[in-house]
């Protein structure tokens, strides 16, 4: 037993003494009923209290922890019977000693209730039962508190793991996204295009969003859509006449929020893996809200249906993991590859309520 545990037990000694003092008074009142032999009642109570103390502490500190709480019910019953026999034996000796030395072998001088072993056992085990019940209630309360504390620790650990995984996924998105946009600037710089400053300006806006806004748990959906439009403008400059984009988006309220970089990786994936057919890369994007649900669809042209194995790169893998972490069962994601079109359809239900803050 360590020092802290010892001090904790010593702190309750006065409380135990007060309780056993109350038991002693109870015995005096109980066994003094219909009796004028007060000295005998006090003497008998003085003998009976230690027997009760030993029996009670044996039950609550040995039988209950070692057998009842460990669900060894047969052992608990067996040793409980042994305890009952031992306490009955000690009480019988006390009755016999009182009969010999306190009443001078005159049973008429003995208090009525002190003559009956069943009544005495009832008085003793009433105290034992009361203390045992308190012990079990306290044990249940402490178990509930420990379980709550353990559950809180598990939830905190899960939250930390979740946040770490989200940060890891975000960091994977950064270099992938920047690599493609910097390639666009590099190509225009080689051509000494007059559009290079405009591209750099649009990229700076995207960099601000990626490097700073992405650390926030939520951003405005309207802001996400604006950066999608900037990204598309950059790609139009890169593809020039070989790109056809059909972008549709209804007005979005400022109050609607999503996790940052939720939709941009889908757009990025479309331009990265999309292929030119008949002289054009075609990309169709549609974003709209309905009943507080986000509906997003994007599709791009591909030459062969065998490309499906290669187009699900870092972007789509990461976004699916993030969707599961952040929206869990509140989203539906469909990915299809047919008729030279690769399409992604995303629906996020109950939009604001499903985001984990």
Question: What is shown here, in short?
Answer:
The chain is of the alpha+beta class.
Verbal overview:
There is one protein chain. The protein is an alpha+beta fold. It has two domains: 106 residues; 202 residues, 2-Layer Sandwich (Heat Shock Protein 90). It is 63% helix and 13% strand. The protein contains ten helices and seven strands. The strands form two sheets. The protein has a five-stranded mixed beta sheet with strand order 2-4-5-7-6, covered by helices on one side. Strands 1-3 form a two-stranded antiparallel ribbon. Helix 2 packs across helix 3 and helix 5 runs antiparallel to helix 6. The protein is rod-shaped, with a radius of gyration of 40 Å. The chain starts with a helix and ends in a 9-residue tail after the last strand. The relative contact order is 0.07. About 1% of the residues have low confidence.
SSE topology string: HHHHHHEHEEHEEHHEE
Report the mean per-residue pLDDT as an integer.
78
Strand content: 5-15%
Helix count, DSSP H or I runs of 4 or more residues: 10
Number of beta strands? 7
Gyration radius (Cα, Å) is 40 Å
Strand order across the biggest sheet? 2-4-5-7-6
The CATH architecture of the largest domain comes to 2-Layer Sandwich
The dominant shape is rod-shaped
The CATH topology of the largest domain is Heat Shock Protein 90
User: What is the CATH first-level class name of the largest domain?
Assistant: Alpha Beta
Task: Report how far apart the termini are.
Answer: 44 Å
Uncertain regions spanning at least 5 consecutive residues: 307-311
Largest sheet properties: 5 strands, mixed
Assign a percent range to the helix content: 55-70%
The SS-based structural class is alpha+beta
CATH superfamily of the largest domain, called what? Histidine kinase-like ATPase, C-terminal domain
Number of domains: 2
